[in-house]
Amino acid sequence: MKDMEKLSIVKIGGNIVEQEEALNRFTKSFAHLEGRKILVHGGGKIASKLAGDLGIEAKMVNGRRITDLETLKVVTMVYAGLANKNIVALLQANHCDAIGLSGADGDTIRTVKRPVKTIDYGFAGDMTPTSIHTKRIQSLLELNLFPVFSAITHNGEGQLLNTNADTIASALAIGLASSYAVSLIYCFEKKGVLSDIADDHSVITEIDQTKYTALREQGIIADGMIPKLDNAFDAIAQGVKKVIIKHADDLADEHAGTTIF
Amino acid sequence: MKDMEKLSIVKIGGNIVEQEEALNRFTKSFAHLEGRKILVHGGGKIASKLAGDLGIEAKMVNGRRITDLETLKVVTMVYAGLANKNIVALLQANHCDAIGLSGADGDTIRTVKRPVKTIDYGFAGDMTPTSIHTKRIQSLLELNLFPVFSAITHNGEGQLLNTNADTIASALAIGLASSYAVSLIYCFEKKGVLSDIADDHSVITEIDQTKYTALREQGIIADGMIPKLDNAFDAIAQGVKKVIIKHADDLADEHAGTTIF
């Protein structure tokens, strides 16, 4: 079997999207990243601020946003409009031929409205095993375009849906893993997975499944880091080559951050 | 020379975009339009309403919007976000494989910030003879995708710009006229160019340059219709096969409206 072409899927959070200088730095280093690549972004506090300015109350349950119709309009405007188009324009200025997409565009990501159990999350979209239109995304990559996904998807029946950006990134990575050697890169506000949460320099360079089990048993990896790493190992199990957790400013540094494999 | 493939470029105004039922009807008939096609849309009063809700004063000079930075944010959110993604999702629901684009996406439309003469229009983008990335748009059409353009473009240096949707539609038509037999279709609130403005059924079926001169001399075509028709004849002169002015509800009816050739 011949070597598969490399593909980097990079996820950035709202904290980068909403800071002009951080976003300028990030788009510059993303533009210079070699090979095929996809960007996935949230929109973060801009959406909450806009909702606030419009008198729409932010509804949260268990740390997750409840997407009522008014909130859906706001996140569609902010994520798929303002944030997405600004990022694309900045990438273009850095000679990166970016194309901004929601999941509705080219039917790239089709989700289902989250079923109502105890909580009605409203217009929240959940992934299914066939959500990612692999062939379509591949055809865009083969035009030497760099897709930039906002966290808005659709259900194929005319309804836009708000979808978690981390989930989109990992679903894209898994969906494209049979066509490319995928590196999934989560940029966040820390330099990686830390062995001492109080020490920013205590980055654990590599974690495999055995080491993960040990780190959990020792209590070094705990709380919010557990679902992140569980998702990372799930992606690895489904064919993604490696998952990297690093600071956005370290995107260009191949040796920075924590590599999960 | 072999016959060129047909391409329809359809422009709809904000009055359709903002009315749920009109938009449902329109997206259904656009989806059923045969052959390759491109949609260009405005966003109209939704942008003004949002600006109003946010306390941003709409600035107009000579009937044209002054795009200050706050207004640019609003139109980017409404045109490229809310309106564009809703239209794309509705088209997808009608089995039309639409892809929503601003001019920044894939560098499809690169404009220049309007030079300040007596009036500073702010972040308004003007077309140049090389604005349309013909090859890129053609490559998307050849993936059997149907581009849906919002009226947001970019200058290639990271700046988004607000651009007139009519102008985008005619620039696309002219830019693609060497590759396709282009019909440029302007949908508006009348059934076509009327010989009697008080009679909705007095549609002039066909207008060529000779007839246009006569109709102007007779005062039958006057006021706001003159720039529209001047632009139409300009497009014809630059290779567009025909320009059709019709009601959005008549899109499916090949014989409806006024054909300029």
CATH topology term of chain A: Carbamate kinase
Mean model confidence by pLDDT of chain A: 94
How would you classify the helix and strand content of chain A by structural class?
Answer: alpha/beta
- Strand sequence of the main sheet of chain A, in spatial order? 5-8-2-1-11-13-14-12
- First-residue to last-residue Cα separation of chain A: 21 Å
The number of helical runs of chain A is: 8
Query: Percentage of helical residues of chain A?
Result: 25-40%
Secondary structure tally: strands of chain A: 14
Greatest interface and its participating residue counts: A-B, 41 and 41 residues
Classify the oligomer.
homodimer
Computed over alpha carbons, the radius of gyration of chain A is 18 Å
Largest sheet of chain A: 8 strands, mixed
Q: What's the shape of chain A?
A: globular
Number of domains of chain A: 1
Description of the molecule:
The structure is a homodimer of 261-residue chains. By secondary structure, the first copy, chain A, is of the alpha/beta class. The first copy, chain A, has a single domain, classed as 3-Layer(aba) Sandwich (Carbamate kinase), CATH 3.40.1160.10. Chain A has helices at residues 14-17, 20-32, 45-53, 69-93, 134-141, 165-176, 209-217, 225-237; strands spanning 6-12, 36-41, 60-61, 64-65, 98-101, 112-113, 125-126, 146-149, 152-154, 160-162, 181-188, 206-207, 242-247, 258-260. The longest helix of chain A has 25 residues, at 69-93. Chain A binds chain B through residues 50, 53-54, 73, 76-82, 84-86, 88-90, 92-93, 97-102, 104-107, 136, 139-140, 143, 145, 152, 154, 156-160, and chain B through 50, 53-54, 73, 76-82, 84-86, 88-90, 92-93, 97-102, 104-107, 136, 139-140, 143, 145, 152, 154, 156-160.
